[in-house]
Amino acid sequence: MALLRCVKIQVDKVYSKAVNPPTFLKKLINITGMSEQWVTARIKQKGDNKCISWRNLKDVVLTHPNTKKRVDVFALSIYSLVIFPKALGHVDEAVTDLFNRLDKGVTPVPAILAETFRSLNACRRAGEGRFI
User: Fold this and answer.
1) Can you give the pTM of this predicted structure?
2) Which residues are in the DUF7745 domain (predicted)?
3) Cα–Cα distance between 132 and 38 in angstroms, integer?
4) CA–CA distance, 30 with 13 (Å, rounded to integer)
């Protein structure tokens, strides 16, 4: 909560997709504070999902003049690279959706637990390796 500056997280709300969510492009523009041209030039397609490279976001974290945007981009990167690592070295579209909802006071705990459960279940079904 301190990292995201969310003082009013509503515990009773669960993570769910909005009916008409903003596009990945719009979410990245909102989170990073960068121009539409900057974001459009850096969006890539990885498999089924759109994503943006961590290296591009690292530059924003290091050079953005707005400190709040720096913290937001840094927190988005942590969520993507540590909690939901889908495409190695890239921030996934699903993570930006979660992060966008955090700004509205929705708690990420159910989403994190669901992702952990899904990962454990996949490891168990595959019968190989361990969940780390």
Assistant:
1) 0.61
2) 12-130
3) 35
4) 22
Look up residue 88 and give its two tokens.
Answer: 């190695």
- What are the tens digits of pLDDT across the range 73-95? 888 888 787 766 777 788 888 77
Q: Provide the domain count of the chain.
A: 1
Please state, in angstroms and as integers, the Cα–Cα distance from residue 4 to each residue in 32, 91, 126, following that order. Answer: 13, 17, 36
CA–CA distance, 77 with 80 (Å, rounded to integer): 5
Task: Answer whether residue 34 is part of any domain.
Answer: yes
Task: Extract the runs of DSSP E, i.e. beta strands, from 17-93.
Answer: 43-46, 49-53, 90-92
Is 131 a domain residue?
no
In a domain, 9, yes or no: no
Range of the domain at 36: 24-126
Strand order in the sheet with 49-53: 43-46, 49-53, 90-92
